[in-house]
Amino acid sequence: MQQYLSVICSVIEETDYLEYNKRKLLNRIFSRIFGNNIISKVQTALLHALKTDNQDVIRKSISGFKTLISIHQVELENQVIEVLVSLTTSVICDESMKQDISTLLNKSKLDESQQLTYKLSYLNYNSDEQLLDNLAKFPQLLTQHFNQINLIIDNCSELTSKALETLLKCSNKKNIPDKLLDSIAVLLASTNSERIKSLCCRLLAEIAKAGRQVTDEIISLILVQDEKKKPIDILKLICKNQIISEELKTKINLFSDIDSTTNIDRKTLHKFLNNMRQEFQISRKFSHLSIQKLLSFNISLNGNETKLEQDLIDIFALILIQNPEYSENQFIVNCLEKAILSKTINEKILNAYKEVIKRTKCQTKNFESVLDIFIEILNKSDSLVKIHFDILVCIALASESKKITKLETLENNIFNDNEIIRSWSFRGLRAAYDRGLRSLAFQQWCDSISEKMEENTPIEVSFDFDLFETISALKYIDFDKICDKPQNQWNRELLIFDLIERISMSEAERFQFYQAWLDIEEHQKGNSNILLKLLHRFVMNNGASFHECYETIKILDKIDFEIAYPILLNSKDAFVSLKTKYLTVIIKQRLLNKNGTSCEYIESLALKMISKFGLDISQKLFDALENINNLAEFENIVNFAKENKIKLSDIYVKKATIPVLKRTLEIKFLGDRIKGIDRLKLGTYLDSLLDQSWTFEQLHDFFNIVNESNCKDRARYSIFVLEIILHYKIFPKKENYDKISTALKNSAESWLKEINKIAVEANFSDRIRVKTSRELIQELESRNSHNANLKNLGEEKLLNLIQKIKSSDLISKILDSTVKDKSDRENEEQLIYISQWTKDHIRQWAITVKTDVETRNTNSEDYIVEALAVIKQANFIETRFHLTDAQILSCLIILNANKDQGRLLQVATGEGKSTIISVLAVFYALQGKKVDIITSSPVLAEREAKEKEKFYHMFDLQCSHNNDKVVYLSGPKTCCKEQVVYGEAAQFQFDTLRTEDSSKIARLATSISDMDQLQIIYHLLWKQLISMQDKIIQLDGELYLLYGKIKLEQNRISLEYVEGVDGFCVHLQPYPHFSDQFQYIKLD
């Protein structure tokens, strides 16, 4: 297309071109319509070029429009203006292109909508704040402005509110891109500003009202907002635009029907509790909205609805376990205590009450009564025996929180063989002892332990409650570990030994464990024994693997004691909580905008990473980043890594930016999809394609299709496919993506041909397409309908021949092409198709053909098909391109010529004449014939000979050129010994003359140097001759040649004064009676 544009632009740059067209055939000059049609056609051609994806073509088209306006004062058509305006908003339009378009639009008439877009496209501003101020004045925003606002939201916290307000003012919220919507979601989740949360919710409501669909993540975020943000109203709007889960629909309907200001009826409460239970089963937690709604109800428990009340109390228990801060809610605590007093107890209720004891220090309305019930239950062996341990823990925790006198339960269990029960009993009794309550059983147990230790150690044992508490929690005791140690180290040695035995470590793991703990003792100083005690307590109560324990110790070495202590003391899952807290610290270190980000969001993000990747991968992801300046992009990386099952080895950069890390992961994940190729080359191609706006998802889909192929060489073919897409800059629009996907679903051997077709269509015209073989044959027949020699080559026959030659499963009948399959145990022979041949196969085939060429029928259809198929494969090996249908058809026409006649083919530019000639040269040279290829110049001859040398060599053929590089003396030239010789016509003639009679000197005339410089003069002469026809008019049967500029005024034709000479007219005598006398006629 570009060359056609160049012609159009060069023509219209001539100032009088359009005037010539207006004067063509004077009898039509009075109709001005003709001239306008010419202009319209030029605009249509240039407009067509504007709609392509090729920047160079677009630039040329814009240049053409500038010429029309500046030289010919042409008004641009509305359709042209529309496309130019839309171009200013496109990513393909760079700054210089925008300036040129601005020049065009400033001289054109724009409608209101076009003016609005134009002003937005050329908005001037000096800062982000000024940009937002300017955008607020416009009713609609362009995609580029949504992207700019996205950057402001992600990177400029002080302007976040203003950016959201600007979005609220725009009327085309439905056009907000997905990326900006994701950024709004991350902002809503991460901000600690109530104002920004309110703006985000208002904006999401407006977006939903505009008909825009949102993600499930946004729906989840809306659910956790408080009622001031009106989450249910927003969710109702969302339901109108998209399909949502039945559970969510039920929740929305339920919440809408409930009036929280009145007593809720039992039926509605039952539905609501069922909805909350479903919510918990799905996400393992309750939403903030559900909890708030439940607590807003006026609920009265009268004991008549036992099942309903038990459901309510179970949910209250789960709420407390999820968030112990609700221990301050008196209604929830009263409900729990009421359940305990009625002995309708389960494990959930007791676990929740443990949190109440720790938070309230037993300062509840009914604690004393609850304690009595606990003791009563423990003194009886009934159906509640399975919760005895949890009740014991509650009593021990209560003893640690306040002074209680009822210690019989703890005393009864201090001598228990189970170290967990024994440990909790000791903790409760020790707390009572510290508050002045003496227990004989407790004293006896301590004395017995002291005696046992004195028996097993050589030193006197001091009375030490910390040591006794340690021993109460031990499952494995080895006094040999402390015999030679001072008593202040006994706790450490006993706890470490018990941990090692519980976890069953190998010798190597024991060494790692000790080494890690020594690091803690060095860094945590006096707090290491406290951490060891709490770590042991957690492992004792919950169990752990070596990896979990070792990972936790490494974390304890990296975070402050003040952070680790409360987690080990209170957390239900200390290992996860410690890892989450450690990642939280790292996130805060990397995060540039700490002040505007809520701690809850950071902890949630850390927990998500721990649950998705574990600690090692999470930590390595953070090590790969220098900082986190964009939370939305970072969350995108986290989700991206999870979807693609990231491994430690996938992360190989350090202190990079988020985009660089994302790009390296994309290349690594894509590279892993294709095996057995040059990783560096593949990585380079992928990086360049991603730069050209091909998305990870598109390339991933391509590789999925590639891997479905059964071809062994699919990896090698796929790299060539990427190379073509990259080299020809195939734009990643949906049309091209669909075409490539379809092409890759065909046989791997046809990929390159199909992708080349797509490249041609994408680069040269959006209207041009490669013709099918049937279309080519039909065109051949229509243009040669008079040629009787082609009658024997019917359409179906030619189609059949072409398909055979292109077939990927064609087998040679000449060469015994079988090999042993080494992977086959039975050593069965496996056929190798011609399309799978290597250079060695081709050389072997050529030698076989040349050996028995005398006995072979080289004119047979089978031989021609096989020969062309082999040559086609050789061409592919050498060039990585298959022969096109046009090239194969050309060869078939030549090879099916009559014996007494030749063939003269007219092959269009770009169809590959050099390739066709080389194919035919091989075909005839294999028959032992000498092949002379005549070129238009010696330069071309030399170039072709060098480029095709390797191609001919595959067939054991030699080629050369006959240019005289040295002074000729005598005898045949060296090049004549080769089977294929390239040269210009004059050189072949000279070689023939001197070979036939070497006694004479012969030299034909050759081209004179620099003759090509006269082409400009030839062109000007030809142009002048062509222009003469526009100056000849017929009046009253006579012909006149007009010189000057014709002007039409009031039905009168006049010749204007031109370059100092009056216009004049030459009367032309009828041919052949021209006279030397000219008649000059002056026209006013």
From TrEMBL:
What are the recorded GO MF terms, alphabetically? ATP binding
Transport among the record's keywords? yes
User: What's a single GO BP term from this record?
Assistant: intracellular protein transport
List the InterPro entries hit by this protein, alphabetically: P-loop_NTPase, SecA, SecA_DEAD, SecA_motor_DEAD
Q: Which PROSITE patterns does this entry report, sorted A to Z?
A: SECA_MOTOR_DEAD (PS51196)
Q: Name one GO cellular component term.
A: membrane
Q: Which SUPFAM superfamilies match?
A: P-loop containing nucleoside triphosphate hydrolases
Asked if Protein transport is a keyword of the record, the answer is yes
Q: Where is the SecA family profile domain?
A: 758-1084
Pfam family of this protein, just one? SecA_DEAD
The alphabetical list of record keywords is:
Protein transport, Translocation, Transport
Q: Which PANTHER family match?
A: CHLOROPLAST PROTEIN-TRANSPORTING ATPASE, SECA INNER MEMBRANE COMPONENT OF SEC PROTEIN SECRETION SYSTEM
Q: By what name is this protein known? A: SecA family profile domain-containing protein
Give the organism, scientific name: Rotaria socialis
Q: What is the lineage of its organism?
A: Eukaryota, Metazoa, Spiralia, Gnathifera, Rotifera
